[in-house]
Design goal:
17 strands; 6 helices; 21% strand; single chain; 364 residues; alpha+beta
Length: 364
């Protein structure tokens, strides 16, 4: 009889424990739901204040930031009419004429051997190739953003990473493209067709040039072309396919805007933008290629404007520079790993084109 009572008591205790566990889980879920709902309300309120508040500049910055991405561009539509959004975008987009690239401003310097006594020396921009691999990585920190600048001292090592036979069928992540070419480093390059943020990164949305051959020219030239000619000089701002052909461009993509043209930051009206992850490429007067990746959409790095990255390029000696595809695509890969943070919530995305850095002594 005692054993039966004990069994019933154990069953009752087990049942009570199960109920307590279920109630605890339900409480946790309730708190989680309340937190999410509260966060959504706060976020909605912030966006409402940005778009309807007294600050016109805050409204414009919010609109430009979300409209630059295919994934969350719809947020502006919640608070503003199509006409209001169109007026904001039109006021920020200034058509600019870019003078042809003055190739005389670039004199490609031969690599210098480190002094056997004093070791590696700083160059004219105060940078030192400490490990002698021909690549300098600098951390970038600015107001509200952080990222990396990669300086490739020998421009002949920089080519486009692209797999022409895969265009229109599949894209490659930056790491996959670098590994495909057994490269040392890489950044993402041109844009791609991305309806509703679901593109597979295979179809360029504008002209690309790979080994002197143009692809997808029927898609136009975008708002800024950047390419490397057969003398390893980077051109920014070519407007037509005929211009690209005449300049003997070997590797190039369209995106834009042009950030620096012949040593000068382009007019401020053409650099109006929101805060987002950014990728850019440029070239110094000694031929060194500059590759920039700025993180964004993170607490520690909200992102940068076009003007921000133009100023960074000038600081690092750019004679010519151009913005590349940014947002969720912005990535910098170096020696087997990504060194910046991907902004995509769905993971690293494939792209149709990259700029890669070959190993020393390897021919394209």
């Amino acid at each position: 009889m005692s054993a039966v009572k004990n069994n019933k008591k154990e069953e009752k205790n087990s049942g009570s424990l199960f109920v307590r566990i279920v109630l605890t889980i339900l409480k946790i879920l309730a708190v989680a739901v309340e937190t999410v709902v509260l966060a959504a309300i706060v976020l909605y309120a912030v966006m409402f204040l940005l778009t309807k508040g007294p600050s016109k500049s805050a409204r414009d910055l919010f609109v430009m930031s979300v409209r630059e991405t295919s994934a969350i561009g719809f947020l502006a539509d919640w608070f503003l009419t199509e006409d209001e959004i169109a007026q904001i975008e039109a006021s920020k987009n200034e058509e600019v004429y870019y003078a042809p690239t003055d190739t005389s401003l670039i004199t490609i310097s031969a690599a210098s051997e480190p002094d056997p006594v004093s070791g590696p020396q700083a160059d004219a921009w105060g940078l030192t190739d400490d490990d002698g691999d021909g690549i300098i990585i600098e951390e970038i920190h600015g107001k509200g953003y952080s990222g990396y600048m990669m300086v490739v001292l020998d421009p002949s090592r920089v080519i486009m990473g692209c797999v022409p036979e895969s265009l229109g069928r599949r894209g490659y992540t930056v790491a996959q493209m670098a590994e495909y070419y057994d490269a040392v480093a890489a950044i993402n390059a041109g844009g791609f067709e991305d309806p509703d943020g679901r593109g597979n990164g295979s179809r360029p949305d504008s002209l690309i040039v790979f080994k002197g051959t143009p692809y997808f020219a029927f898609n136009g030239m975008g708002s800024g072309f950047v390419g490397i000619d057969d003398n390893y000089i980077l051109h920014a701002g070519l407007k037509t396919l005929e211009d690209v052909t005449a300049a003997n461009i070997q590797y190039g993509v369209c995106f834009g805007p042009v950030l620096v043209s012949n040593g000068q930051i382009t007019p401020e009206g053409s650099l109006s933008s929101g805060l987002n992850p950014r990728t850019a490429i440029g070239q110094r007067s000694d031929g060194a290629i500059l590759m920039l990746a700025i993180d964004g959409r993170q607490v520690v790095s909200l992102g940068a404007t076009f003007k921000d990255i133009a100023e960074i390029m000038i600081k690092y000696g750019a004679v010519n520079a151009c913005n590349l595809d940014g947002g969720s695509s912005t990535l910098m890969w170096y020696k087997g790993e990504y060194i910046n943070n991907c902004a995509s919530v769905i993971g690293i995305r494939p792209v149709p084109s990259t700029f890669i850095v070959l190993k020393e002594g390897v021919s394209p």
